[in-house]
Amino acid sequence: MRRQDLAHLLRAACDIAGDHEVLVLGSQSILGAFDEDDLPPAATASMEADIAFLDDPDRFKADQVEGAIGELSTFHLNNGFYAEGVHIETAMYLPEGWRTRLISWPLRASEPAEPRFLEPHDLAIAKLGAAREKDRAFVEALVEARILSVSALIDRCAQLPEKHAAVRAHIAAYLTHLQG
């Protein structure tokens, strides 16, 4: 997915939900901080973007987006990419303070959407917490490209809430191995 694709998707999602404050979770959140030309192919390979709304306690907006521009929708078939409407709590393994580190685009980039994106190191910790092979490959590609710092990831990992102590220990061991 390219930034212009994501901007198009965000505009459509905001029109559908009637809400301009949207949060991009998952791998495509990296496009909030970097242009696709600056990223390794593994970082932009996904054709979906996980989209949550900052004010969607009952997940109604996410469901609207999923139904209208989700997988196998006309939008997906016409554009080659789609939105996965998710709840903000989908990102379970985010370090403390992640909301203060959200990244924004200039409004004109995706107007009327006012998207927020996870800071890349926060995104990587969330991906490593999910512990899927594709997520490890995503993080490793960003480390190899020197987009992510392993020492910053270790610091961010230490900021995972205590309720995720087991996940924190697993991620820390993985990062130590990666640093090695």
What keywords describe this structure?
180 residues, 2 domains, 7 helices, 5 strands, globular, DUF6036, DUF6036 domain-containing protein
Tell me the major beta sheet.
5 strands, mixed
Encode the helix/strand succession as letters.
Answer: HEEHHEEEHHHH
The quaternary structure here is single chain
Give the overall shape, derived from the CA principal axes. globular
Count up the helices: 7
Q: What is the share of helical residues? A: 40-55%
Beta-strand portion reads: 5-15%
Q: What is the arithmetic mean of pLDDT?
A: 94
Number of strands: 5
Structural class, from helix and strand content?
Answer: alpha/beta
Provide the low-confidence segments as ranges: none
Describe this protein's structure.
The chain is of the alpha/beta class and 180 residues long. The protein folds into 2 domains: 3-119, no CATH class; 121-179, no CATH class. The protein has 7 helices and 5 strands, in the order H-E-E-H-H-E-E-E-H-H-H-H. It has helices at 3-17, 60-69, 74-79, 120-130, 133-144, 150-157, 165-179; strands at 21-25, 48-53, 82-85, 103-104, 114-117. The chain has a 5-stranded mixed sheet with strand order 3-2-1-5-4. It holds the Pfam family DUF6036. This is DUF6036 domain-containing protein. It comes from Brachybacterium equifaecis.
